[in-house]
Write a structure and sequence with these properties.
3-stranded antiparallel sheet, mainly beta, 7-stranded mixed β-barrel
Length: 241
């Protein structure tokens, strides 16, 4: 491993697209990203290629999803949903599906992907990485605290040198993180979902405006998995070559 970039401070998985996810101490990384990440989604039946997201229905973020079994090479782990009113139900619960459909105001189809599917509910890439230094810099720009969960990262890196937005210089480079090797390949263009506070679900359009004027609306980087393995909180990340 070459130049040290820092270490993992948090790992996040989102078993259902646009639902609140779960924080992990370790996670298996397969060719498609964190195992079980975005393995479920709701599709608009009038437009089957479009996933329902919190961009259109912010209240989706008030539903929390967690994996509750191991899964295998042919099927992902079972998923448990905790609703805003505290009910705990399986992903397959028909009342949950009706509730989300009513919330969205459109006919929906719940979809469960398999490990054989290419991108599942992921829009662009297999892993999304943000750094603590960039979060702190954004707080200074915006003038308010910023929860990294606004950006729905899979991996949060505590940077060794503390240089904001250094991750954008990693584009085109390979990085080893624990057992895993990834290739960083593009900046993540953000949408209005970042305006939703993951703590109280309030909406403030000022954050996206700040990103738009100062960072071309980009924050964090996408990475493709080159070598699979396990990542753990505390694992060191370093440039290869």
């Amino acid at each position: 491993m070459g130049h040290s970039l820092g270490k993992i401070s948090a790992i996040h998985r989102y078993p259902v697209k646009s639902f609140r996810g779960e924080s992990l101490q370790e996670a298996a990384v397969s060719r498609f990203g964190l195992y079980g990440d975005r393995s479920r989604a709701f599709l608009d039946e009038k437009s089957p290629v479009r996933h329902l997201t919190a961009k259109h229905v912010p209240k989706l973020l008030e539903y929390q999803a967690a994996c509750v079994s191991e899964g295998d090479e042919t099927s992902f782990p079972d998923v448990r949903i905790t609703t805003p009113d505290g009910r705990v139900v399986p992903w397959t619960d028909e009342e949950l599906h009706k509730e989300i459909e009513q919330l969205s105001g459109r006919p929906l189809a719940p979809v469960t992907f398999t490990p054989q599917d290419e991108l599942m509910g992921v829009d662009q890439a297999q892993l999304l990485i943000v750094t603590d230094a960039s979060v702190r810099a954004l707080e200074q720009m915006w003038g308010k605290p910023v929860d990294p969960l606004r950006f729905r990262p899979n991996i949060v890196l505590e940077q060794a040198d503390g240089v904001p937005f250094a991750e954008e210089d990693w584009i085109g480079r390979r990085i080893q993180i624990g057992e895993v090797v990834v290739e960083v390949y593009k900046k993540c263009k953000r949408c209005s979902m970042v305006n939703i506070d993951p703590g109280d679900y309030s909406i403030d359009p000022g954050l996206l405006k700040t990103l738009a004027t100062s960072r071309e609306a980009c924050f964090g980087v996408y990475a493709a998995v080159v070598e699979t393995g396990v990542v753990r909180v505390g694992d060191v990340a370093g440039l290869l070559g």
